[in-house]
Amino acid sequence: MPRVEPAGGTPEVQAPVPEVGDGRGPQPAGQVPNTTEPGRPTGTPGVPSQASNPAVQRPANTTPNPGIPLTSRGQQSAEEMEMFRALNGGRIEGRISIPDRQAASLIQPDGQDWRQFHNVTLAWVGGIAVLGMLGILTVFYLTRGRIRIEGGPSGQTLTRFNAFERANHWMVSSSFIILGLSGLNLTFGRHLLLPLVGPEAFTALSGWGKISHNFLAFPFTLGLVAMLLLWVRDNIPDRLDINWLKMGGGFTGHGHPPAKRFNAGQKMVFWMTVVGGGLVAFSGYILIFPFFGTNIGQMQWAHMVHSLLSVLMIAGILAHIYIGSIGMEGAVDAMTSGQVDVKWAREHHSIWAEEELARERAAIPAGRVAGAD
Predict the structure, then answer these.
(1) Are 335 and 170 in contact (CB under 8 A)?
(2) Is the pLDDT of residue 373 over 70?
(3) In the list 71, 223, 229, 315, which could disulfide-bond 129, CB 3.0-4.6 Å?
(4) Domain tally for the chain?
(5) Cβ-based neighbours of 150, under 8 Å, separated by 6 or more
(6) Rounded to whole angstroms, what are the CA distances from 50 to 21, 38, 40, 65, 217?
């Protein structure tokens, strides 16, 4: 087919082909550009188009950088400014139509502090307190050994605790042991126990542990109240306690400071158990009954108080268990049979022992007179 020349003899110039790409409009069917370079119209090689691929213009000082906090950037967006204005009150809440008002909380910044405490601070404090106490007791046992009754038991006994006192003590102590173990599992179990027993056994153990943790709180609290009523009169601090502390409680050397029914060390354990255990129980009930007159922030504080006091109490009770078992000869009899050896009583509770012996001596003649009648 003969080529048609334009009028005037000017050479034919091909019209630019529409560029291919998003936002460029539809491409006519069957028309293929004669170049693969974007932004260069066909028929005019070497001359770039000024209208193709315009550079994206960004406002000054607004280059996003994920590594820099929002508050450190040169300029904040309107959304960021609105968020930080809302956070001036400590949290962001929205509007909801369901009865649960707690669901309106979108951002609660204090939760980050609580998570840091639970995952880091509590683990360090608990580990140092419990392992540190175990280490101290081990060193003490290896250097001091078991505290023996000087000259051996006499064979004569005194009643130290009656059946009700012993039953209440074992109710509190057994509850505390299970509460302590199940609570420690919540903090350390995932790191220490899970690799040993596997996920299935750990899940079952943790589930039963949580159930026992919740329900044993009630006998534990009841026992604390009974313990307070039974022993508060004998645990009032006095001047003898100062002397007992100055002499180290008789744990060093061979002398034993005088003491009444409870010495200064036992009084400290008593008040730690009653006051500390009471706070642990109260904060625990806040967690058992969530949002019952409390909000999420108050429950986070309750959990921090509950867990921190618990690990400190566990460390203190470890010392109490040591002294009452392998650390001192004759001590465990007080909470098993309720009877203690007279020589043990005179060494560790001399004032109380003499009062009890005088009471028994006074009761013997009265009984003989009553029998003679």
Answers:
(1) yes
(2) no
(3) 315
(4) 1
(5) 254, 343, 347
(6) 17, 12, 9, 30, 78
